[in-house]
Design brief:
The protein is α/β, with parallel strands linked by helices. The chain has 15 helices and 16 strands. It binds S-adenosyl-L-homocysteine. S-adenosyl-L-homocysteine (SAH) binds next to helix 4.
Length: 364
């Protein structure tokens, strides 16, 4: 009998044919398989879905990013046309809110050419509905350069890219692989060969036996491409995600279904799979193309500097009691230290000559 879960079926066949797969291959197939991959088959966002993101919590998030874009556009010399590229735009909510706020600087709004990097057909439809007036174009990967300066936005995108995992075992790194276990379930297993783990020698020294190191060739490739583009055409990238400011060991692979953590190997394709972003490595990847990095700062500090309190006050002024409560709750979720305010970090990448970016001023 064939497995009714096409992703599990494909993985089982692949493992039977060529042996255990890397965690990265498992993630890649679970998330992006054209037949049953998690993002290919559903809109995962919001209360009725599996997880909720900052732009879905409140319009304030996208609006402040829109104002950040307008400020950045001015710092870039107010070009007549610029590429405004969003990676993984979800339902298009962040971009719709950002463009509305950006229109307070009409020349900036008029200069923005909206390009969306999205692989999910379901979410492309949602983005088309949310952005019908914005004339966006869609791309599977970073669109080819047309010479325009570029502003890149990526909120909760890098965490969806596959990671490889390595386990310290007997003084060396062995890759953590996925195989099929009893009753066709998936299980972790250690690979035999000592793999090439380029950036890991220092961490190998400090890691304890059994500890896990993650690397993401996919993140290195995307960040490398974005950085090369900015180095050539000018611009700034803004990356927001959960993760750690310094490289460290730790297993951050996690799966979420219906807003609850579940076993990452259970029923692949039916739960969101993510890993924390190593911001130090993102910055060093970008530095190797000559860019300057900003932060990471916490999402709470970033949004506070951009004026989220004033924006909340303005919204409260026209609100009834229930709406006021919603605004307060959204503010607490976005910037509260126990919620998204501290775990989420904001990193920017720019050309070297840029000497200030909104949201990255040193604290008092
Ligand atoms: N930024 C949105 C959505 C985050 S969910 C928000 O904040 O609400 C992750 C997004 O990245 C989804 O739109 C998903 O379809 C997209 N995505 C995941 N992997 C991708 C890939 N490899 N290439 C392009 N888009 C991808």
């Amino acid at each position: 009998m064939t497995d009714p879960n096409p992703v599990a079926h494909r993985l089982t066949e692949l493992i039977a044919k060529s042996g255990p797969v890397s965690v990265a291959t498992f993630m890649e197939i679970a998330l992006a398989d054209p037949d049953g991959g998690y993002y290919m088959t559903r809109d995962p966002l919001g209360a009725a879905g599996d997880f909720t993101t900052a732009p879905e919590i409140s319009q304030m998030f996208g609006e402040l990013i829109g104002l950040w874009c307008a400020d950045t556009w001015q710092r870039l010399g107010a070009p007549d046309a610029f590429a405004l590229i969003e990676f993984g735009p979800g339902r298009g909510t962040l971009m719709a809110d950002a463009l509305r706020a950006m229109a307070t600087v009409p020349a900036c709004r008029a200069a923005a050419r909206v390009q969306l990097v999205e692989t999910s057909p379901v979410l492309r439809d949602a983005q088309a509905a949310a952005l019908s007036g914005a004339d966006p174009t869609w791309h599977d990967t970073l669109p080819a350069s047309d010479g325009m300066p570029t502003i890149v936005i990526a909120n909760e995108f890098l965490d969806a890219l596959p990671v490889r995992q390595f386990v310290k075992s007997g003084g060396r790194w062995r890759e953590r692989l996925v195989t099929t276990g009893p009753a066709g379930r998936f299980a972790f297993i250690l690979g035999d060969d000592e793999p090439d783990v380029p950036e890991a020698p220092r961490l190998l020294e400090v890691a304890l036996d059994g500890e896990i190191l993650e690397t993401s060739p996919a993140i290195a490739s995307v960040v490398g491409n974005i950085s090369a583009r900015i180095a050539a055409d000018g611009g700034v990238a803004l990356i927001i995600d959960y993760g750690h400011p310094h490289s460290a060991v730790g297993d951050t692979l996690q799966a979420v279904r219906r807003h609850r953590p579940v076993d990452p190997l259970d029923a692949p394709g039916t739960a969101d799979l993510t890993a924390h972003v190593d911001f130090a490595r993102v910055a060093s990847t970008s530095a190797s193309t000559g860019l300057r990095s900003w932060g990471p700062v916490t999402q709470g500090a970033f949004l506070a500097q951009l004026g989220i309190h004033a924006r909340a006050d303005a919204l409260r002024a026209g609100a009834d009691t229930r709406q006021e409560r919603d605004i307060d709750a959204a503010l607490a979720r976005l910037i509260g230290p126990a919620e998204m305010g501290t775990l989420f970090k904001v990193l920017a990448l720019s050309e070297q000559w840029i000497d200030r970016l909104a949201g990255f001023d040193p604290g008092p």
